[in-house]
Specification:
4 helices; about 80 residues; mainly alpha
Length: about 80
């Protein structure tokens, strides 16, 4: 599942770097809040200090405009 992790982190990084999405001045904080997650969870995930559940990854993916195909399972970690 490391491919999913890498792709999601790349999408988050690209969103923050662009800063030109529908939301101005994009930050990890704003992405986390839009996803309904703690900023600390997102920061630790992006910096490879924490695994997250697939359901959390789906929330993050939705917040940065990445489409996830399949049903999220709260038991899988990425």
């Amino acid at each position: 599942m490391s491919d999913i992790r890498s792709e999601l982190i790349a999408a988050i990084d690209a969103t923050v770097a662009r800063g030109e999405t529908l939301y101005s001045s994009e930050t990890l904080y704003s992405i986390a809040k839009r996803a309904g997650l703690s900023p600390e969870v997102v920061y630790r995930f992006v910096n490879h200090n924490r695994d997250i559940r697939l359901s959390t990854a789906c929330k993050l993916a939705n917040a940065v405009g990445v489409v996830v195909i399949g049903e999220p399972s709260a038991r899988h970690l990425i």
